[in-house]
Amino acid sequence: MGQTQQTECKEEIDVKALQDMYRKFVMECPSGVLFLHEFKRFFGVDPTGEASDYAESMFRAFDKNGDNTIDFLEFVAALNLVFRGDLEHKLRWSFKVYDKDGNGFVDRSELRSIIDSIYRIKKCSKSDLTDTQISVDAAVDRILEAVDTDNDGERPVLLPEFIKGAQADPWVLKMLSLDMNPAGWVLENRRKSAHF
């Protein structure tokens, strides 16, 4: 079974990188927990920069028990998911990132906030800007249209709708690529912070 999981894994955690992260985690967080400001510093995110909102959403998604801290077990569990999780697990994680208030729904303002952050990150990193040629509001409308499977257009989107709609629309999956590949974001930001 472990071997099957290995072959399905697109990106594997580099053992040395994980050891380095643990060392840095222990050095920066001798208490054994990571607070939001430390999380941002850990990944080299400017507290007011383009990636700040996205980092805050990632922090909430990593914080499984909701105590506003991340212990190393939560950190490793989240990294395991982002590096090894299947599409549905990553969509569940992505939904948690979008659900900023944790009420089990994603509404238009939550979606807009994260899409805006993704656009700003893509512009700053000069990564694939083809999706950012439409406005944030147009992207939000298109995503909501795809994931609002009951077509009520009013009510916030539930997790099952989000998963079903995202799986059915390749553009939505591509648009969510930063969330679908948080491992890439984690590694890129770790590399950037290591150079400082």
From TrEMBL:
InterPro entries hit by this protein: EF-hand-dom_pair, EF_Hand_1_Ca_BS, EF_hand_dom, Recoverin
Gene Ontology cellular component annotations, sorted alphabetically: cone photoreceptor outer segment; photoreceptor inner segment
Q: Which UniProt keywords apply?
A: Calcium, Lipoprotein, Metal-binding, Myristate, Repeat, Sensory transduction, Vision
Q: Domain EF-hand: where?
A: 50-85, 86-121
Keyword presence, Calcium = yes
Q: Which SMART domains match?
A: EFh
One example of the protein's molecular function in GO is:
calcium ion binding
One biological process term in Gene Ontology: visual perception
Out of the domains of life, which is the source? Answer: Eukaryota
> What protein name applies here?
Guanylyl cyclase-activating protein 2
